[in-house]
Design goal:
CATH architecture of the largest domain: 3-Layer(aba) Sandwich
CATH topology of the largest domain: Aspartate Aminotransferase, domain 2
Helix content: 25-40%
CATH superfamily of the largest domain: Type I PLP-dependent aspartate aminotransferase-like (Major domain)
Distance between the termini: 61 Å
Shape: globular
Number of strands: 15
Structural class: alpha/beta
CATH class of the largest domain: Alpha Beta
Bound molecules: pyridoxal-5'-phosphate
């Protein structure tokens, strides 16, 4: 409740009756915007106690305001500030102060914002995102059931306090099994930390490594939120081209031989944005470079669990890297529910430092979600769901590739990705993406204008066509619109 005692001051020595003084002050508070339309005022008894007045005085003030239509009496609920107020002219009112406008009274660091698509279609629209799962396939019932059973368990009140910066032990234990089964990772508990998504893990790892003006190697193009994160920490980015086999490892070696490189950031499977997977040959070469130069590497394997063509190549983290690879992954896409749980795998001293740093911004993770996820990993729900969604996403990928080649012809180029949730679709120079996006919007299709993929790199004239969240009909509709645009 608002501190009415401070907001409403009355003076019995004034000629104006006290109830009138209260009514006037309440009108003032409504005009200042402090009492918003729809807000219920305290009951007359409560307000009278606060103001140390007789209750009848407050009732008289409320009655006055109801009769003037400033307040509405709602049976059994009390008095509410009216929704359709009589002449409010805040502009002519002198006393109101709004402490929060747009501009701050001080300067501060700003992170570049991503540019939104050029034009958003009006009304309901088909949206091509850059690779999200389909929430419609999510095992909602299982998730709700599991959360409920965690909340109802006698241990729940204790669970609320558990866990420090590294996350819930039950989930970390389940992950030992899961990561060994899916990635051949041979690790133990002190090597795992749960984070709020892969993004938090990227930030924490980078913050422990990077100091101002440190040199960091990234792909060209690269995942923009990694670039922005490293730059915010003061890094200078050295961009190494990414081709059909992944990042150019020879160039990485050359850079390492000439300059002091602080860190290498890699997306080994379904690189963002290009979706290519680092070839086995380059992995072997890279491992040797990492060992030779003791090069710290962030291996971001954000959607390893989505593989369609063949078994995925194991991550660098599973091979002999001399303790130099910080492996990052995520469950944010696994259930299609946007559960913000990711993880970092690293030598235990690094994990301790990351957990200490994490506590400065987030004391502990979401224990309810972490326990529920641990249970779903243990009873096989996650594995079953991944199997089912992989099958559907593979069909969607194949359908999209078929439609793109048969309907869009030479206007676009792409390589079929072995997994993930998007196709890297390059438009021919004849079709500048900004124009394509603007025209698509007029036909009810929202697509990226490509800006976010060109950050710091050469203009790409390409976008990630996220297929996983669209059903067959939606994929066909999106391609038809693109076909019209390109004609
Ligand atoms: C390459 C890459 N890394 C990290 C992330 C962040 O993942 P999360 O949602 O788990 O934070 C994304 C998000 O899509 C991504 O594309």
């Amino acid at each position: 409740m608002l501190p009415f005692k401070t907001l409403i001051q009355t003076d019995k020595m004034l000629k104006l009756p006290v109830y009138q003084q209260i009514a006037n002050r309440l009108i003032g508070l409504i005009q200042e915007g402090l009492l918003k339309p729809g807000l219920f005022l305290p009951g007359s008894r409560v307000l009278a106690i606060q103001l140390e007045l007789h209750r009848k005085t407050v009732i008289a003030a409320y009655d006055e305001l109801v009769s003037q239509d400033w307040l509405v009496a709602v049976p059994r609920k009390g008095v509410m500030v009216a929704d359709n107020l009589p002449v409010i002219r805040p502009r002519t009112y002198q006393g109101g102060i709004s402490p929060y406008g747009e501009a701050a009274g001080f300067s501060f660091h700003q992170t570049p914002a991503l540019q939104a698509p050029v034009t958003k279609p009006a009304g309901a629209a088909l949206v091509i995102n850059d690779g999200f799962p389909d929430a419609r396939l999510a095992p909602l019932t299982d998730w709700v059931k599991e959360c409920r059973s965690v909340i109802e368990s006698p241990r729940y009140h204790k669970l609320l306090m558990y866990g420090g910066g590294t996350g819930l032990e039950a989930l970390r234990r389940q992950m030992l099994v899961y990561l060994s089964g899916t990635r051949g990772l041979n690790i133990s508990l002190p090597h795992i930390m749960i984070t709020r998504g892969a993004q938090m893990a990227i930030y924490l790892a980078a913050a422990l490594l990077i100091k101002k003006d440190d040199l960091v190697i990234v792909g060209s193009p690269n995942y923009i939120f990694a670039d922005l994160c490293f730059e915010q920490l003061g890094a200078r980015l050295l961009r190494v081209p990414v081709d059909e086999e992944g990042i150019d490892v020879d160039m990485i070696e050359q850079l390492c031989s000439k300059r002091k490189i602080k860190m290498l950031y890699l997306v080994t499977h379904h690189h963002h944005p290009t979706t290519v997977t680092l070839s086995a040959a380059r992995r072997m070469k890279l491992l040797a470079v990492i060992r030779k130069y003791k090069l710290p590497v962030i291996e971001d394997d954000y959607d390893y669990d989505f593989h369609y063509s063949s078994a995925p190549i194991l991550p660098l983290a599973s091979a002999d890297h001399g303790g130099n690879v910080i492996y990052i992954g995520s469950f944010t896409k696994s259930l299609g529910l946007s559960i913000r749980i990711g993880f970092m795998i690293a030598p235990s001293h690094f994990i301790d430092a990351a957990a200490n740093l994490r506590r400065l911004m987030d004391l502990r993770g979401d224990n309810l979600a972490e326990q529920a996820l641990a249970n779903l990993l243990q009873d096989g729900t996650i594995e079953r769901h991944l199997k089912k969604s992989n099958k559907i996403y593979k069909e969607r990928r194949d359908l999209l590739c078929h439609l793109l080649s048969t309907r869009l012809g030479n206007a676009v180029r792409f390589t079929v990705p072995s997994g993930g949730m998007a196709i890297w679709l390059r438009f021919s120079k004849k079709y500048p993406l900004k124009k394509v996006a603007a025209k698509a919007a007029t036909l009810g299709l929202q697509i990226s204008n490509g800006d976010q993929y060109s950050y710091g790199a050469a203009p790409q004239n390409a976008l990630r066509f996220g297929f996983a969240s669209l059903n067959n009909k939606e994929i066909a509709a999106a391609v038809s619109i693109l076909e019209k645009v390109l004609k």
